[in-house]
Amino acid sequence: MTQAPATSTNPAKADSQPAPTKPSKEMMLKWLYDMQLIREFENRTQQAYQQAKIGGFCHIYSGQEACAVGTIACTNDDDPVVTAYRDHGHALARGMSAEACMAEMFGKVTGCAKGKGGSMHMFDKPNWLFGGHGIVSAQTPMGAGFAFASKYELEVLGTGKKKIALCYLGDGALDQGAFHEAQNLASLWDLPVIYILENNGYSMGTAINRHTANSENLEDRAKGYGIKSITIDGLDILHAYSELKPFFDDCRDKQRPGFVNFKTYRYQGHSMSDPQKYRTKDEVDQFKDQDSIAKLCSDLMGMGHIDEAGWKSMQKEIRNTVLDAVEAAENAAVPEPGELYTDVYANPEKNLSPTATYTHGTKNPLM
Amino acid sequence: MTTMPMIETDIHPAVDNPALPVFLSEDQLPSREGDRIVQFREALREAMSEEMRKDKRVFLLGEEVAQYNGAYKISQGMLDEFGPKRIIDTPISENGFAGMAIAAAMTGLRPIVEFMSWSFSFVAADPILNNAPKMLYMSGGQFGCPIVFRGNDGAGGQLASTHSWCVEALYANVPGLKMAIPSNPYDAKGLLKTAINDPDPVFFMESERMLGDKAHVPEEEYYIPFGRARLAREGDAVTLVSFGRPVNFCLEAAETLAAEGIEVDVLDMRTIRPLDIESIIERVKVTNKVLVVDQSWPFASIASEVITQICERCFDWLDMAPARLNTEDVPTPYAKGLEYDYLPNPERIVDAVRDMLN
Prior knowledge:
Chain A is α/β, with parallel strands linked by helices. Chain A has helices at 25-50, 65-72, 88-94, 98-105, 139-157, 177-188, 208-211, 219-224, 237-254, 281-289, 292-302, 308-331, and strands spanning 81-83, 123-124, 129-132, 165-170, 193-199, 202-203, 206-207, 228-233, 258-263. Chain A folds into two domains: 16-335, 3-Layer(aba) Sandwich (Rossmann fold); 336-367, no CATH class. In chain A, helix 1 crosses helix 2 (65-72), helix 1 packs antiparallel against helix 3 (88-94) and helix 4 (98-105) crosses helix 12. By secondary structure, chain B is of the alpha/beta class. Chain B folds into two domains: 36-216, Thiamin diphosphate (ThDP)-binding fold, Pyr/PP domains (Rossmann fold), CATH 3.40.50.970; 230-353, 3-Layer(aba) Sandwich (Rossmann fold), CATH 3.40.50.920. In chain B, helix 10 links the parallel strand 13 (290-294) and strand 14.
């Protein structure tokens, strides 16, 4: 089999060519690799959290892998991406190294934000990932803003090209006013932003039918703003890609917004501290029986693209990559006390604070 | 992975920002005296238009800024010059368009967001406080936020309590942002031009009651640096420290006091964050008495902060406890007379100075 590179990079983007509508064998194997990488990474994240090596709020992506991997597969490498706080999967799918992602959660200087952001704030400028945002729906006006910026570059500066911005949101974000304002702006101004609703059925512990009106017909909302929409079975990435690629291409071509109701499921609690009293183990098991990674693996075996030995060797390679990332994060340095006062201002003039003297930060490890 | 072909943002904090203008010392700035008399609103417009002519990354968005020519006519004519892609009418969605503009700033564009009133900024509190000032820090120095939020701040004239907010004390509390608050057309232009070029988020405070104020604004280009106060009037009895519209109340009070033979300093801070504490100390060492005149409410106000810093930095030079004169500690009333009494008006300043000297 084709060995995936240690730093996850979407092969569809490797030569900056738009991804084909029909995925190649290499692309599909890479998806399998990335999805398993996220799963393995999140297993180790939970372990490290339980060992108190990771602090704060930490939201596990397991179960939803097909969403990040399947949607990012439809983008170009310079399409801006922004997401909420359940963001490890997007960061890895977008190409952040497992080491930078893990080290960030360990609060180390080798983390993507030098240990200043943590689990909820994954930023990766070289891979056009604009966070990781902690406030529910705060990222949705920003999604419109990245689309606005790419259009502004194209139309005013004459330097850009037709892009799409990807903005992920959980179903809890449906209920925030910010998202409604964002959809209105996106449609009103023809902003090429695709809102990807990662509909895992729960806003923290509140089931979707208890937190949002007309929850069976979520596309109606997008229609209300004149935004085209699609609902996707999120447990089958091959199906998802075949539906989403033309949808994304159309948004890019027409420079119009889109809304994807991506039906998925999270295996773990809302955050690491969630006892999950609001759902049954049976419900979780039902979804685990339809696991998207197992499905893709079995599909690829059916196509003859991978065999048991190949899958085992891929899993082993991923396990080692993630273990290396954990080890590197453990061994990396914690930020020096002086880092407290860096990166507060890009132009740190004097007298900005009565007590602090701000300075420029050290170079970010990703840049 | 290809290197990011983003617009050059100059935001990486490891390098100095080459886009910052060259600042002249106060005595090298063009003269404040002259006959090119323009209104405060025109000075703001000149600042934005000059920077927009120079830098296509700069654009203006807000409610009624384009076709309506500005709710307060600040952006009058700008749509004609720059077109609808750079002068952008927004729906009444402060949360939405502020968040949108912040994202645009993260990519290296230079948005100017007009809030018709800072009172309306509260519905955008999450993006302007939680995103703009923290982006550089949260991203470990990867993404800055070169954006200007500007609009009317303070009592606008019988607008009652929801529309008369002074937001400076609330917002200046947040590290990562800068705050400028001019008191006259000359400074308004020079400070706004600096704000647009600054790589950090700048909260720019104007006043509906000053937009018609007229003064000489020179033809030649100038920038006023942040963190440099101006001694608007020199005296020896008391140093009045103020910023924004109340500077003019102080100057009026100073005239009244001068007729009684009392000469006071009026120090116009021009920016709150950074705060030019050195200029305050310099004058306190002369007058040994200080009164901070502040249009926000007294509790945890800018005056509280200024006085704390004075006590920390030049306590021994004080002849008496530093004093503050704030807006009265009540919601803003509608009735004209009550609103006047509520503000730190010239009569209240005169009384406060007399009290200090008796």
